[in-house]
Amino acid sequence: MKYQLFTYEKTERIARSGISIGADWFDLGHVASTAGCTSLAAASLDDLVAHWASCMPELDKLAADLAAKPDRFSPATLDPASLVLRSPFGRPGAIYAAGANYRDHVEAMGLAFNQKLVLDPKKEGVPPWHFLKAGAATLSGHRGEVAYPARTERLDWEAELAVVIGRRAAKVSVSSALDYVAGYMCANDLSARDHLVRDGVDPSSPFRFDWIGHKCFNGSCPLGPVFTPAQFVRSPENLAIKLWVNGELRQDSNTSNHLYGVAEQIAYLSERVDLLPGDVILTGTPAGVGMETGTFLKRGDVTRVWIEALGELETRIV
């Protein structure tokens, strides 16, 4: 029985966990208590993913009970339209993000800047590359509002598949890497493009580039709207991915355009540092970002990221 997990605000900005099955949304603590699953009753999604191997069988059983006897749990029913959804995870581990990882995006950027970029780096022996986004302060949830960062004029969008690690991964093989994934979410890697290269700094200076200013500001990592366990995603390498700005389709691709698949990224990262439960990997963005055309976000703009089987994540720039 497919289920998804989410985090919402109940009262006084207190975070609560939830579980959804199809169109039915429930308070996880309430249904877990009713079903006698005491270990789930007070758990946040951060707690669940920290002990994913032991929690998953209980979640599977609870979902089956919800589907079989929904009336028994009706007092815990929620209206998703009225919920204030947070990022599913409030205390993520490291947030890794892949750069230049879609064939169509690399090709589009090459055309936009009249550069001949390598479209198949694996053939040349080039490994994937990642940068880090900051932690909890960068998070935003579904229908969240993100303040336009100061001293920025080129704020860009990047629809991405987010991968959540469910158990320690140390030097794992590509063939086994997906066994370490707890699940997936939609993400938007908001980017302040004008902060990547510092104005007035000599091109030969080691202080010329500013990846913190480019990628790390409050709300720069919207995640959600829900967390989908990996067992319900047939393959992370064949998911349609789209993004709209104010209702206009800007990105329309498929994760099959990954230059390096999810498994390859996990294996590569785990060679250098152990990946831990709760770590998040943003796996790259397809063609259609604002940088390609010089069109950027403004205050009041609304972006929507949709990924097949994972849901739709909305963000407003304020």
Write the layout of secondary structure elements.
Layout: E1 4-9, E2 15-21, E3 24-27, H1 28-35, H2 38-41, H3 45-50, H4 52-68, E4 77-78, E5 84-85, E6 95-98, H5 103-112, E7 130-133, E8 139-140, E9 144-146, E10 155-156, E11 159-165, E12 181-188, E13 191-192, H6 211-215, E14 221-229, E15 240-245, E16 248-254, H7 262-272, E17 280-282, E18 302-307, E19 311-317
Parallel strand pairs: 6-17, 8-14, 9-19
Antiparallel strand pairs: 1-2, 1-5, 2-3, 3-4, 6-7, 10-13, 11-12, 11-17, 12-14, 15-16, 15-18, 18-19
Structure in words:
The structure is a single chain. With 318 residues, the protein is an alpha+beta fold. Helix content is 19%, strand content 29%. The protein contains seven helices and 19 strands. It has helices at 28-35, 38-41, 45-50, 52-68, 103-112, 211-215, 262-272; strands spanning 4-9, 15-21, 24-27, 77-78, 84-85, 95-98, 130-133, 139-140, 144-146, 155-156, 159-165, 181-188, 191-192, 221-229, 240-245, 248-254, 280-282, 302-307, 311-317. The protein has a seven-stranded mixed β-sheet. Strands 4-3-2-1-5 form a five-stranded antiparallel β-sheet. A hairpin with a 3-residue loop joins strand 18 and strand 19 (311-317). It is globular. The mean pLDDT is 93.
